[in-house]
Amino acid sequence: MPVLEKRGVAPISARPARTVGRNRDVARNKQAKAVATGQLVTTVVVMRLYVAGRAPNSVKAIANLEAICRRHLKDSYKLEIVDVCEHPHRALTDGILVTPSLTKVSPGPASNVIGNLSDTGSVLVALGLHAGDPQ
């Protein structure tokens, strides 16, 4: 019998998934309060870029994404770069089979772009932005 059951704590798989809905409600309440008080609301885009070491397409993808973020997202983004050569299990766990691959984690809905990210328009669409829409 696992130690968790002896203490009366349900295993994680048996617990109801309430945190996502609760976190979403908390975020909505904060946005509503900020709008009501006239404060500027900035949405932070969270992204993860999977690359294969210093491969040419990976280097291009990093440079292209940094340029897009500087121009369209300013300081309202978080970017995690995962080298699949160093962390292959992480890439497989996340369902990444091709590099370079960009995943928008939040805000939802999640989306993916595969390639060196030279097509700025498709990257902006995947991030939920418009070409003439710098934040």
CATH superfamily of the largest domain: Glutaredoxin
Strand elements, count: 4
**Low-pLDDT runs:** 1-21
Estimated radius of gyration:
19 Å
Can you write the helix and strand succession as a string?
Answer: HHEHEHEEH
Calculate the mean pLDDT score and round it: 76
What does the model show?
- The chain has helices at 3-6, 19-36, 56-73, 88-93, 120-126, and strands at residues 45-51, 77-83, 101-106, 111-114.
- The protein has a four-stranded mixed β-sheet with strand order 2-1-3-4.
- It has two domains: 3-36; 45-126, 3-Layer(aba) Sandwich (Glutaredoxin), CATH 3.40.30.10.
- The protein contains five helices and four strands.
- It is 39% helix and 18% strand.
- By secondary structure, it is of the alpha+beta class.
Brief write-up:
With 135 residues, the protein is an alpha+beta fold. It folds into two domains: 3-36; 45-126, Glutaredoxin (3-Layer(aba) Sandwich), CATH 3.40.30. The protein contains five helices and four strands, in the order ααβαβαββα.
